[in-house]
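Hi R.,

As promised on Friday, here is the backbone we talked about, encoded as C-alpha cells. Could you run it through your design pipeline when you get a chance and send me back a sequence?
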C-alpha cells in the first residue's frame, strides 16, 4: 500500500499540484486495531472514550514490533515513535490522531512539515476494556503485565462482516485500565506499560508552530 499526496501552493492563477508517492518501511499499512475498514463516515473510539494518560506503547504486527511513547487526551492521542517511521519523505517522528478533526497528522521535523491524511478505523488504538462487537468474555485468572497485576480475560469479538476474532485481554482491575490485548487468530498485539493517569497539555495534539501542512488522500497502488 502507498499513499498519494497532493501538494498545493497558491499562485496568482491557480493551484499547482505535485504528486509524490511514498511507502512505510513496514510492509503494508500499520493497522493498530482489528477493525473492518470504515471510509467516508465519522470514526469514533470503540467503547468508552479514554481518560487522559501517558504510557509506553508496544505493538506487534506480522512479526514486526514497534515501540513508542503515547499521550492520550479524550478524543485525540499522540504517538512519539522510537526511531521514527521511515518513508521516502524522511522520518516521521510523531503521529497525532484527532477524532474531532477526523485526521491523522504525520510530523516530519527535518522538513518542518505535517502530512494530513483522513482518519479511518484501521488506525484506532484500543483503549476501552469492553471491546466493540464483543460477544463473549471469560475470566481466565490472575496475571501480570510488566510490573502491574492484571486480570486475564478471553474475549470473542464479531466485526461488521460477521467474522469472529478471539483475544486475550489483560486489565488493571484497580484502575479499570487496558494493559494488553493479543489476538489468538493472527500475529498482533498492543501493550501499554507504565500507564500514568494525568492531564496532558493541549499543545501535544496540535501541529507544531511554523510547520507546513499538506493534505493527502490515501491511495492503493496496483502491484506489478
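Update: got your reply. Pasting your designed sequence below so it's all in one thread:
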Amino acid at each position: 500500500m502507498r499513499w498519494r499526496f497532493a501538494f498545493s501552493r497558491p499562485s496568482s492563477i491557480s493551484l499547482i499540484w505535485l504528486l509524490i508517492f511514498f511507502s512505510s518501511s513496514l510492509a503494508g499499512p500499520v493497522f493498530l486495531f482489528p477493525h473492518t475498514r470504515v471510509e467516508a463516515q465519522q470514526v469514533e473510539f470503540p467503547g468508552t472514550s479514554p481518560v487522559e494518560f501517558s504510557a509506553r506503547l508496544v505493538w506487534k504486527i506480522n512479526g514486526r514490533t514497534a515501540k513508542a511513547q503515547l499521550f492520550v487526551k479524550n478524543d485525540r492521542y499522540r504517538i512519539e515513535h522510537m526511531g521514527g517511521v521511515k518513508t521516502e519523505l524522511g522520518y516521521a517522528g510523531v503521529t497525532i490522531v484527532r477524532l474531532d478533526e477526523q485526521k491523522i497528522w504525520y510530523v516530519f521535523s527535518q522538513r518542518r512539515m505535517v502530512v494530513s491524511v483522513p482518519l479511518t478505523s484501521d488506525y484506532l488504538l484500543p483503549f476501552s476494556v469492553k471491546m466493540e462487537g464483543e460477544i463473549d468474555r471469560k475470566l481466565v485468572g490472575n496475571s501480570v503485565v510488566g510490573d502491574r497485576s492484571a486480570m486475564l480475560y478471553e474475549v470473542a469479538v464479531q466485526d461488521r462482516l460477521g467474522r469472529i476474532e478471539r483475544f486475550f485481554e489483560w486489565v488493571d482491575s484497580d484502575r479499570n485500565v487496558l494493559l494488553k490485548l493479543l489476538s489468538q487468530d493472527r500475529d498482533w498485539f498492543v501493550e501499554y506499560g507504565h500507564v500514568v493517569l494525568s492531564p496532558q497539555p493541549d499543545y501535544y495534539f496540535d501541529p507544531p508552530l511554523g510547520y507546513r501542512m499538506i493534505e493527502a488522500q490515501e491511495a492503493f497502488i496496483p502491484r506489478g
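One thing I noticed while checking it: Residues 134-188 form one domain.

Thanks again,
M.
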